[in-house]
Automatic annotation (TrEMBL):
UniProt protein name: Fe-S oxidoreductase
GO molecular function (one): oxidoreductase activity
Renumbered residue ranges of the record's region Disordered: 1-20
Domain Cysteine-rich, chain residue ranges per copy: 212-297, 344-421
Keywords annotated in UniProt: 4Fe-4S, Iron, Iron-sulfur, Metal-binding, Repeat
Family annotation (InterPro entries): Cys_rich_dom (IPR004017)
């Protein structure tokens, strides 16, 4: 017999989704019996609905387990197999924000991503997390090690070697065909240290203060420093005073996805005081990676709902194109573009979509004359580490296939994603040799700004 969902309204809520704070410091949060009771309740609701079958692989995994059982109901699925669903969830939040009709304030109170997060946290507390996964999510330590000049060359060469990649797959479970990020010893922090400081703040608007402190992010610092360069160049071209936050640690998103919530708290204790002080000094905060912005806008406020500094940073941090669009809305964005961009296939990352900003990147790039931007609102399947793991890589590429197909059908001059990792995932599916171009790079090209940082 199936475990029935709570009695009550069967229609979905028409109200905007609300989010409850994450009660992660309560010992009952890690009670495995209570966890499985809630997993059973929510899985059965999902089984009766099935609207989210086209998102990530967590839902097809759940539905296949049910359909293959003797009863073809959830009661036919072994409890140990519940973990398969958890392992395929990478906390993109798309089910919560775009599909599920039973999220709060609906009485059924379904928060699938945060339930998966709770399960991951229980698994981590039990010591059942693989060493590989701990290593992949330790982005600061890996970046510092791989950023040593001699090590950088060796790591990048190894990542490009098919022979060494096959060996790495056997030893560490990192798929030989997955794209691994390139590392730079000449980090964004080093490059920014060689650039002249900008002057006074631009004229403030109702939403922006015209002074921006860049939270470089571990990926932006070690793996893609050119994105930060382009961001600084574009903002300075618009008269916006810029600086880097004097220090940072990883935002905590990789550890959140691992279920290591204590590590998330340690990252918060390192980052929030620095960023809150910048806000007090009159700076807005911008970060170039959508998942990092989401971490400060949503996840940390839900983990620390009573921390006033967390709330302060939440209210002052922006996606780069969100910031530029706000400036344009009040007539403060320069539109003296010198170069057309042509046809752009623009992938909208999930961690940007769930911020409910609208398509600000497309909005700003559309200001460039002679440019045609088509948005692709589908998941790339990357999720930081999901796509590089041997057991998930093929699934991740299947999730990305609709995005790849749309890019191929468009034959664009450029394809782009605000998430640099998603961009490389798309490149991996295209197999054409054409790499992604970040939207900030496209905007710099449109302005005709030469790179000043070397």
């Amino acid at each position: 017999m199936s475990t029935k969902a709570p009695e009550g309204r069967r229609e979905g809520s028409l109200e905007a989704p609300t989010r409850h704070p994450l009660d992660w410091t309560n010992p009952s949060f890690y009670d495995e019996e209570a966890l499985f009771k809630e997993l059973e309740r929510v899985y059965d609701i999902c089984h009766g609905c099935r609207r989210c079958f086209s998102l990530c692989n967590a839902f097809p995994t759940l539905f296949d387990l049910i359909d293959a059982s003797d009863s073809m109901e959830l009661d036919g699925v072994a409890k140990k197999d519940y973990w398969q669903v958890v392992d395929h969830c990478y906390l993109c939040d798309m089910c919560y924000m775009t599909k599920c009709p039973y999220v709060p304030p609906h009485e059924w109170n379904v928060d699938f991503p945060h339930l998966m997060l709770r399960a991951k946290a229980v698994k981590f507390k039990k010591g059942e997390t693989r060493v590989r996964d701990k290593f992949l999510t330790n982005t600061d330590a890996v970046g510092r090690l791989a950023g040593i000049p001699v090590v950088t060359q060796a790591v990048n060469a190894a990542n490009r070697s098919p022979t060494l990649r096959r060996a790495l797959e056997k030893v560490a479970g990192i798929h030989a065909d997955a794209v691994l990020p390139e590392y730079h010893s000449d980090t964004l922090r080093k490059r920014a240290g060689r650039r002249p400081q900008t002057g006074e703040a631009a004229e403030p608007t109702a939403a922006t203060r015209g002074r921006v402190a860049l939270f470089a992010t571990c990926y932006g610092n070690f793996n893609a420093p050119e994105i930060g360069e382009d961001l600084l160049a574009v903002f300075e071209h618009n008269g916006i005073a810029t600086r880097l936050a004097e220090k940072e640690r990883c935002c905590g998103m990789p550890k959140l996805e691992l279920g290591d919530l204590d590590a998330v708290a340690r990252a918060k204790e390192a980052n929030i005081p620095v960023l809150a002080r910048l806000v007090d000094e009159g700076w807005d905060i911008v970060a170039p990676v959508p998942s990092c912005v989401l971490m400060f806008k949503q996840e940390l406020p839900l983990m620390f709902p009573d921390d006033s500094d967390v709330a302060k940073v939440r209210d002052a941090i922006f996606d780069p194109f969100e910031y530029l669009a706000l400036r344009h809305r009040e007539g403060k964005l320069r539109t003296d573009f010198r170069n057309r961009l042509g046809k752009i296939a623009y992938h909208v990352p999930c961690h940007l979509r769930v911020q409910n900003l609208g398509l600000k990147t497309r909005e700003v790039l559309s200001l460039v004359p002679g440019s045609e931007i088509e948005a692709i609102e589908r998941c790339s399947g990357h999720d930081g580490s999901y796509a590089v793991k041997s057991e998930f890589h093929k699934v991740s590429m299947k999730i990305c296939r609709p995005v790849v197909s749309k890019v191929e059908a468009m034959s664009p001059d450029y394809y782009a994603s605000d998430c640099p990792m998603a961009g490389h995932q798309i490149a991996n599916g295209l197999k054409s040799g054409q790499g992604p171009t970040h939207p900030l790079t496209l905007l710099r090209q449109a302005y005709g700004i030469e790179r000043r940082i070397s």
